[in-house]
Amino acid sequence: MPPATGFPDSWRERAVPPETSRRFLFLQGPLSPLYRRLGRRLAEEGHEVARVNFCLGDWIHWHGRGTRSYRGRPEDWARNVGDLLDRLRITDLVVHGDRRFYHRVAIEAAAMRGVRVIATELGYLRPGWMTIERGGYSVLSHFPDDPAAIRRIASDVGEIDLSPRYPGSFVLEAWQDVSYHLASLLGRPAYPFYRRHTPLHPLLDYGAWALRLATRSARARGAAKAQQRLLSADAPFFLVPLQIEGDYQLTAHSPFNTMAAALEVVLRSFAAHAPNEALLVVKSHPNDNGLGRWRRRLDEMALKQRIAGRVVFVDGGSLKDLARTAKGLVTVNSTAGLDALMEDCPVKTLSPALYDMPGLTHQGSLDDFWKASKKPDAALLLDFRKAVAATLLARGSIHNADGLEAAVEAMSSRMLRGDLNEPGGYVDPPPRLARARAIGVPL
User: Fold this and answer.
1) Residue 90: what pLDDT?
2) Closest Cα partner for 166 from 131, 123, 121, 129?
3) Cα(48)–Cα(34) distance, rounded to whole angstroms?
4) Pfam families in the record, alphabetically (predicted)?
5) In this model, does residue 15 exceed pLDDT 70?
6) What is the third-level CATH fold of 214-378?
């Protein structure tokens, strides 16, 4: 168990390292040993590495030399992290998920001090990639949204192997998730003021998942039948992939607080402007826990919009197979939109996603999309994928043992070289931010 004291005094006395070395402060990482192993690799190269734990799950993943626990109240974190950045003379702040409460506050403190921010996430391209980006991701990404700039980067980097690697292991992912969150619940006395970044209590989430797993076979059969009917019928359809409620892509990087709010907008527009013979197919997220009761809620929304019978819910199925036939796909900002583009499917985003740009996505209104959708520019899409892979991504995965080894090597190499977003993948200010704010994104 972690010691009962707070930030240890030994950190206050540590000598400041030479200016030739860098000083990394890690906050919460993914549910994986990734951050601990990245820290070890950086330390082996002579750099100073520090880590703050906020709960017992954090502590289990990384404890010992160079780590400390924050047990204070959330409202005191801004003062504490600012003091920590100053005393340790931090040069690089490393966070997984740039909008978690503790991370957002720390990033604001880092910006005031000129500290470089390194944001990590699961890869924009999947499987087999991790995102490692300077400054932030999604709406806060500094990656250019100008097709000409994308083409220049792709030309500079040349050929890149974009083939999928390191398929995920459900067992490994589930174990990492359950062990982390249950440990954090049991360790609550040691971290009494910890503010969880997930919106749902873990026990409620796991209970829902137990039911989902028990009904998995029946749901898979139902989804396969529904998908086959859609693919063999003559009626055109548009596709809407659900995103997880509480996901920061929704709550922080879009104007919607919930997926339900986004669906209300989509169904209202579809009812008023889509061809009368068209269907709207709403597909569940692979990690949906079932608590959304989407089939019932969609029936209610469709009835309200007077399009009952034209909205189809598919609880499972293959996004790629559906996208190949769909007349178009509407998403808030999910990477599912990028997957659809790769299947030559027209895409409309409701919030500026990384791939939302002329030539790739519909730039007009949602109302116009139903009758004026256009397929993406295949050459630009290939250049976009190459540019993203070269500047924002590193090979590897946290849900595959070999992938973890690859991620540690690739991500630490990029951090040591200091070439994040290079060549050419950094524009200041973030080019999507003004558009996002104009539609109500709270950033």
Assistant:
1) 98
2) 129
3) 17
4) Capsule_synth
5) no
6) Rossmann fold (3.40.50)
CA-to-CA distance for 81 and 75, rounded, in angstroms? 11
Tokens of 355: 């791939």
Q: How confident is the model at residue 7 (pLDDT cuts 50, 70, 90)?
A: very low
**Whole-number average pLDDT of the chain:** 93
Give the dihedral of Cα atoms 165, 118, 248, 151; nearest 10 deg. Answer: -60
Concatenate the DSSP letters of all residues of 363-416 into one string. Answer: -S-HHHHHHH-----HHHHHHHHHHHHHHTEEE--SSSHHHHHHHHHHHHHHHH
Sign of CA dihedral 100, 136, 410, 341: positive
Return the SS3 of 68: strand
CATH of 23-168+382-439, one of 3.30.470, 2.60.40, 3.40.50, 3.30.70: 3.40.50
Whether the pLDDT of residue 60 is over 50: the answer is: yes
Would you say residue 441 has pLDDT above 60?
yes
For 173, the enclosing helix (H) or strand (E) is helix 170-186
Alpha-carbon distance 317 to 297, whole Å? 20
Which of 249, 245, 247, 290 has its CA nearest to residue 263? 245
How much of the chain exceeds pLDDT 70, in percent? 95
pTM of the model: 0.92
Interval 272-325: pLDDT, tens:
999 999 999 999 999 899 889 999 999 999 999 999 999 999 999 999 999 999
In order, the DSSP letters of 270-311 are HHHHS-TT-EEEEE--TT--STT-HHHHHHHHHHHTT-TTSE
The sign of the dihedral angle between the CA atoms of 265, 225, 339, 364 is: negative
pLDDT classification of 213: cutoffs 50, 70, 90: confident
* Residue that has been written with the tokens 């503790």 in this structure: 102
Gap between the Cα atoms of 115 and 111, Å rounded:
6
**What pLDDT score was predicted for residue 13?**
31
Q: ∠ CA(249), CA(254), CA(258), 5° rounding?
A: 75
User: Which residue type is seen at 30?
Assistant: P
Residue 390 near residue 150 (C-beta atoms within 8 A)? no
Q: Which two tokens stand for residue 348?
A: 């409309």
